[in-house]
């Protein structure tokens, strides 16, 4: 779907940028362009900011008396402007988007048709919801994770490119649960209940401070006031993963790989909802793993496990939790190709058979029909209950233009 619309977009862009060569750029002494006030989108019926000037900062389902042919435009709003060939923001005849102007940059070219205009926060909202379409079946039993609203349907949190957080409950809908600022976090994980109120929580690492924050789940998909979980130094960890109760004391734990040593550490959850003294789980080499996920109990022995992707081979490994709260001998569950995955998501039981599953979003390396370059596809994998995964099921390619799914 994305490829199709991108192609039509490209042809439109071609028309505009071809004529714009040498014209667009930092505003020279073009009095007409500077007629467009800050905070507005302006378009002119002719090239080089000549002709009638349209000036708006609100959506326009039709262009009304301004007509539909434009030769130049500038976006001086703080939003992304979506310009559509058809009226009513109908995207499938073609559209293109214009980011807020940087240093007075503007675009001029041969006449192009615009029948409607809309302002959005993220590029994908020109043609679809800010959040992706997530569907899950109701599980016969509560997984204990992957279910923020406690209805036994695996749900997801999605961060968009504007730093907002969306809750997708598993019925194709989505709801805003974080109004902004989430792009200040450089790690987001969820798996289980850290605050010990029976509701699943989120842990986030703040990029600017290296602090670790606990966002207690409200039990409805939203998150409550955050609490400090780690006062600093967490940027020294290359990866963190919430895995559930690995130490087997009834409390959810956190795993982290130390950048400088490649060691894998367990940070046990405490009775007060904090993290206790860390314990060494892996003596080295864990920097060779470029993704970790806490899938729950994948091999059906009642203990939570760990999934890790090996960077050098693209293999996926399962590290089973043991009776003593450590990790046992690893087992190969993905023989290769996992480097074409951008995000491995521990979803809990998505398929509704009571077994923990896995989901993934592809990156640029993903191949479809022999052709590389297919990011943004959702692939789901049914857990077999033995530790292994069923064949990947390619769902839809609308998971692009996001900034994380967990
Ligand atoms: Ca749910
Ligand atoms: Ca297990
Ligand atoms: Ca399942």
TrEMBL record:
It comes from the Bacteria. Pfam families: FG-GAP_3, Inhibitor_I36. The keyword Lyase does not apply. Transmembrane segments: none annotated. Residues 1-31 form the signal peptide. Keywords: Signal. This is ATP/GTP-binding protein.
């Amino acid at each position: 779907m994305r490829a199709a619309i991108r192609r039509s977009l490209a042809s439109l862009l071609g028309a505009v940028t071809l004529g714009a060569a040498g014209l667009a750029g930092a505003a020279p002494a073009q009095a007409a362009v500077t007629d467009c006030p800050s905070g507005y989108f302006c378009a002119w019926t002719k090239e080089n900011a000549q002709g009638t000037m349209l000036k708006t900062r609100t959506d326009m389902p039709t262009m009304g008396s301004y007509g539909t042919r434009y030769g130049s435009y500038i976006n001086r709003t703080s939003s992304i402007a979506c310009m559509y060939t058809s009226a009513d923001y109908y995207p499938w005849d073609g559209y293109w988007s214009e980011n807020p102007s940087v240093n007075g940059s503007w675009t001029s070219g041969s006449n192009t048709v615009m029948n409607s205009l809309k302002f959005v926060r993220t590029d994908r909202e020109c043609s679809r919801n800010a959040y992706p379409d997530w569907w899950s079946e109701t599980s016969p039993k509560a997984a204990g994770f992957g279910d923020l609203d406690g209805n036994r349907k695996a749900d997801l949190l999605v961060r968009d490119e504007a730093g907002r957080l969306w809750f997708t409950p598993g019925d194709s809908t989505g709801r805003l649960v974080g109004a902004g600022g989430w792009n200040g976090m450089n790690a987001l994980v969820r798996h289980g209940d850290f605050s010990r109120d029976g509701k699943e929580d989120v842990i986030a690492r703040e990029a600017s401070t290296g602090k670790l924050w606990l966002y207690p789940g409200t039990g409805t998909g939203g998150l409550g006031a955050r609490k400090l979980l780690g006062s600093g130094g967490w940027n020294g960890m290359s990866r963190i993963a919430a895995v559930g109760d690995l130490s087997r004391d009834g409390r959810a734990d956190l795993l982290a790989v130390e950048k400088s040593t490649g060691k894998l550490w367990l940070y046990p959850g405490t009775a007060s909802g904090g993290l206790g003294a860390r314990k060494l789980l892996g003596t080295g080499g864990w920097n060779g793993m470029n993704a970790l996920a806490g899938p729950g109990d994948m091999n059906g022995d009642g203990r939570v496990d760990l999934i890790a992707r090996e960077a050098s081979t693209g293999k996926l490994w399962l590290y089973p939790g043991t009776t003593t709260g450590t990790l046992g001998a690893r087992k190969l569950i993905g023989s290769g190709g996992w480097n074409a995955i951008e995000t491995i998501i521990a979803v809990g039981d998505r398929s509704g058979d009571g077994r923990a599953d896995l989901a993934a979003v592809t990156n640029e390396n993903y191949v479809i029909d022999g052709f590389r370059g297919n990011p943004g596809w959702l692939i789901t994998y049914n857990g077999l209950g033995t530790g292994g995964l069923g064949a990947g099921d390619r769902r839809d390619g609308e998971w692009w233009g996001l900034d994380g799914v967990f």
